[in-house]
Amino acid sequence: MAEPELRGLLVDFGGVLTTNIWESFDAFCENEGLERGTVLELFRGDGEALALLRSLERGAVTDSEFERDFGEILGVPPEGLIDRLFGGLSPEQAMIDAVSSAREAGIRTGLISNSWGTGIYERAPLRIFDATVISGDVGLHKPQPEIYELGAERIGIEATACVFVDDLRENVAGAEAVGMTAILHRDPETTIQELERLLGIPIAA
Questions:
Q1: Extents of the domains making up the chain
Q2: 112-119 mean pLDDT
Q3: What are the CA-CA distances from residue 132 to residues 1, 11, 88 (Å)?
Q4: Which of 3, 58, 114, 198 has the fewest beta carbons under 10 Å from its own?
């Protein structure tokens, strides 16, 4: 059974409520004539690319400015670049249903997402959340501690009473640093089992 203090569930969007982001990026690379892994390696190892991404996440650059500059780094046309990067994403229905079930069971739910521009959230199931925190709207990004604290505040639950789910290890570590119980998401089945254990409620379909 779960510890009774766990009363909030905060989750990431891309890669948790959707299929794997990196696989979508690799599909983009194949479509654009680039080597698989090119986008991932740029964000991991190229300071300019990472700084550009962080600027987009904080809302410091517009979608079109990001597409122009990142398109130049990649050597591909900028028009519709964000949509092309995420063209391989699909909803991860099992995770969407799990969050919805948790909410129906009385768990407060929230989204904490590092923004990839304004259009991507048109496909997000925002109806299953009590509150949302989009990095570009608040001028913060994961793994900054303030963004997790804001997410907890918006759902009305203290950070130490929240479970956080993300597919990036650094973002999980950021949540743990403010006292949250965190799950590194790798597949829906494992994550849902862990959520059921922590929250003490059945949420699997």
A1: 8-19+90-199, 21-85
A2: 83
A3: 28, 10, 24
A4: 3
62-108 residue pLDDT tens = 999 999 999 999 999 999 999 999 999 999 999 999 999 999 999 99
Contact 182, 176 (CB under 8 A): yes
Surface-to-core class of residue 90, CB atoms within 10 Å of its CB (0-12 exposed, 13-18 middle, 19+ buried): exposed
If phi > 0 it is left, if psi is from -120 to 50 it is alpha, else beta; for residue 44 that is: alpha
pTM for the model stands at 0.92
- Residue 118 predicted with pLDDT over 70: no
- Look at residue 5 in the predicted model and tell me its pLDDT: 85
Strand partners, 132: 111
Beta-bridge partners for 123: none
On the question of pLDDT at 186 being above 70, the answer is yes
Burial of 197 (0-12, 13-18, 19+ CB in 10 A): exposed
How far is it, in rounded angstroms, from Cα 143 to Cα 28?
A: 26
Indicate the CATH number for domain 8-19+90-199. 3.40.50.1000
Burial tier of 148 (Cβ tally within 10 Å: 0-12, 13-18, 19+) = buried
Contact 109, 101 (CB under 8 A): no
Burial of residue 68 (number of CB atoms within 10 Å: 0-12, 13-18, 19+): middle
More confident residue, 12 or 4: 12
